[in-house]
Design a protein that fits this description.
Number of domains: 1
Largest sheet: none
Number of strands: 0
CATH class: Mainly Alpha
Structural class: mainly alpha
Shape: globular
CATH architecture: Orthogonal Bundle
Order of helices and strands: HHHHHHHHH
CATH topology: Glycolipid transfer protein, GLTP
Distance between the termini: 33 Å
Strand content: under 5%
CATH superfamily: Glycolipid transfer protein
Length: 209
């Protein structure tokens, strides 16, 4: 589980503000997660996450002292862009990034909760499908949905996926899933806080791609 545990998310303060610098450092390591899923179709999500991280980082680097938290960025862009906000800049990039992060969260939580296809317990199609349907599907048009439906069929065996998460090491399933649960504590809190921030600022958009 070293792929995730090596880059754990920090515990949030009581006000649930997300420090921009530490957040960007943590998410920078997440795109490689999609390599563990095998199918090249998931490289689309990987590329999207990478691109959005780059966009947010570029904004942050312009003025780190001003953009201490992610909310600082959204509020500054709301003031600067007014009419076109939130469909602009780092606000838009983070909106899409959080959906990719939610995909990872739901997939890992589903595995940690023991959800599986009783007829094919070593397949993770059930878990990947749940993650896609809850985190991304509503934002994808018909064509993109069809592409991902094909990718779900090609989802790897659970044993291969967990081994990939462990960087190729042979780790007992229960030990790997215990590491997943440990990783999810601060990760889930961070993703939830970002979703809550978007709701509070009325920054969420529902258009499809």
């Amino acid at each position: 589980m070293s792929l995730l545990l090596d880059n754990q998310f920090k515990e949030l303060p009581p006000d649930k503000s997300v420090d921009t610098k530490t957040f960007l450092e943590a998410v920078a390591h997440l795109p490689s997660f999609f390599d563990c899923l095998g199918s090249k179709v998931f490289s689309v999500i990987k590329s999207d996450i990478n691109g959005n991280i780059v966009k947010i980082t570029a904004v942050y680097n312009k003025n780190p002292a001003k953009y201490v938290t992610l909310q600082d960025i959204l509020e500054a862009e709301r003031e600067e862009h007014e009419v076109v906000w939130p469909k602009v800049g780092a606000t838009l990039a983070l909106m899409w990034l959080k959906r990719g992060l939610r995909f990872i969260q739901i997939l890992l939580q589903s595995l940690a909760d023991g959800e599986k296809d009783e007829n094919n317990p070593n397949l993770i199609k059930v878990n990947v499908t749940k993650a896609y349907e809850q985190a991304l599907k509503k934002y994808h048009g018909w064509v993109v949905q069809k592409i991902f439906t094909a990718a779900l069929i090609a989802a790897p065996y659970k044993s291969n996926f967990l081994k990939a998460l462990s960087k190729g090491e042979e780790v007992k399933e229960e030990d790997c899933l215990a590491n997943v649960r440990q990783f999810l504590v601060n990760y889930t809190a961070t993703v939830d806080a970002i979703y809550e921030m978007y709701a509070n600022l009325n920054a969420e958009l529902d258009y499809t791609v």
